[in-house]
Each structure stands twice: as structure tokens, then as C-alpha cells.
Amino acid sequence: MSRAFADITFTPSVLAAQERYASREQNRRFELSPDQRNSITAMDAEFIRTRDSFYMASVGENAWPYVQHRGGPVGFVKILNERTLGYADYRGNRQYLSVGNINANERVCLFLMDYANRRRLKIWGRASIVHEGENPELFNQLNDQSLGIIAERAFIIHIEALEWNCSKYITPRFTQDEIREAVQPLVDEIEQLKTRLAYYEHGKQE
């Protein structure tokens, strides 16, 4: 048994590259691992539920890859079961590159990033597209009513492999909410100092 991601990605040309750059033995452990890592663990689930964006790669019929960024409210990517994710897809620039690619080739790869904590989860899967009239219950489960708009479609990702990546070279970046939370104690302290200063100045004037 081996890690599912190694079964997918360790092609003959990749193995040859590992041999050339002397990492074959280092990577062999993935081929000997008893844990396939093709279903969502509790740690994976916690991470996925707190994401507000991800990147998804698909491949066109001409073999050119395409990477799309998708964002939404925290938790917009739903865990349907231990092997399946889903998310609502809203109208964008109407080029439908990922949609068209997936209609021809269901294979996709997702990168879920946590820049602040320098973490990255990679997911390989097979994608399908669901429209509102095809499965209303599932579509409504994924569609975010708080946005006030109806999704054009929903993407369902059947997971084939998951793998965490090392933090090396991930530059920390922070959202507005993360920055606001970090600086709030300083803002509170400044307000307290301003109040104390105003009280002191008022006392001097009297």
C-alpha cells in the first residue's frame, strides 16, 4: 500500500527526476506508507471549514492546464462526507474555463492555503457539476443564501488523495479580519490612554 497522492503523481518521468536529483530514497517512504490518505481526517476537516478561498487546477482538451481562484465566506467549501467536497459556483467573467475543462476531463487538483500560519493542503479529485434542477436538495445545501444571489452551478469533488505540504517558502499574509484581531488590543490600549490623558488634561484645567 502507498499514499494515494504518490500513486497519482509518481509517474515514470517524476521517478526519473527524483533519481536525477537524489530524492528517490527520501520519497520512497510515501510508497511504503500504510496510510493511503484519501479521506478527510478531523484535522483536515477543521482546516477546510475555516478556508475562505482556494485554487483549483484543471486541464483542457488541448492538454493546457488552467488554475482558477475561488473565494467566499469562511466555510463556503462544504464537507459532504469523508471523501466528498462541494461548493457553490457563482457567475464570474463568464469564460467558463474550469467548467469546460471539467466537462471534458474530471480530474482536478485543489490547493487550500493558510498563509498566516504557513499551511497548505493539496487535494486531488474528480469533479462533477450539478445544476439547481438536477439535485435541488444538494444545490440548496451548497448555495449561500446570505449572499442574496443564486449560484449558477455547484461543483462536487470526489477526493482521490490528500497531502499536506511543508511550510517552506510560504510567505505569511493576513486577511483584514486577521489584522484587525491582531491589532485590536493595541487599539483598545490607545483608547484607554486617550481617556486617561483627557481626564488628566481636564484636571489640570480645573
TrEMBL record:
Gene3D superfamilies: Electron Transport, Fmn-binding Protein, Chain A. It comes from the Bacteria. Residues 45-151 form the Pyridoxamine 5'-phosphate oxidase N-terminal domain. SUPFAM superfamilies: FMN-binding split barrel. InterPro entries: Pyridox_Oxase_N (IPR011576), Split_barrel_FMN-bd (IPR012349). This is Pyridoxamine 5'-phosphate oxidase. It comes from Cellvibrio zantedeschiae.
